[in-house]
Amino acid sequence: MTPQQRIRLARRHAGLSQAALGAAVGVQRSAVGHWEAARGKFPSVSHLREIALITGVQFEWLATGRGNMGLSADTALDSVAAADAILVEDPLELRLLVAFRAAPTRSKAPLVEVVEQLAELRTGRTRTAATSPRA
Q1: How far is the C-alpha of 76 from the C-alpha of 57, rounded, in Å?
Q2: What is the pLDDT of residue 135?
Q3: Cβ neighbours for 63, distance < 8 A, ≥ 6 positions apart
Q4: Gyration radius of the chain's alpha carbons
Q5: What's the pLDDT tens digit per position in 68-110?
Q6: Could you tell me if 89 and 95 are in contact, meaning their C-beta atoms sit under 8 angstroms apart?
Q7: Using CA atoms, how far apart are residues 135 and 127, in angstroms rounded to an integer?
Q8: Alpha carbon of residue 111 to chain centroid
Q9: How many CB atoms lie within 10 A of CB 19?
Q10: Which of 35, 62, 88, 122 has the fewest CB atoms within 10 Å, i.e. is most exposed?
Q11: pLDDT digits (tens, 9 = 90+) for 24-48
Q12: Rounded to 5 degrees, what angle do the CA atoms 35, 75, 18 make?
């Protein structure tokens, strides 16, 4: 099975259209089409990782064809997202994490900056050099 066929199989197994997978990964539908085409381009490692996470398949299987397609029970338990675990008790914090994780990759940094700016306006405190990623 080719890498392109594995990507298509993972997407279909997850019940996603090319457009839905593209939106979840943060790329256009046409990029997913290229990844699945017989002579198409291979996605970057970061995109391949996102595809594996979104579709629930083993990264190694998706990248190389080795191993099992599906996650083992232990791997599935180890990969439970923090937002889905009991660690997040505040419903608003959970909503924020779920929305952030659903956002396209290219939108995540601007979203964090907007939330930080809103927090500064509400509290009157600015970020310190220790908390700012630009410092």
Answers
A1: 10
A2: 45
A3: 3, 45, 48
A4: 18
A5: 888 665 555 455 454 445 466 677 887 887 888 888 888 888 8
A6: no
A7: 10
A8: 15
A9: 13
A10: 122
A11: 999 999 999 999 998 888 899 989 9
A12: 20
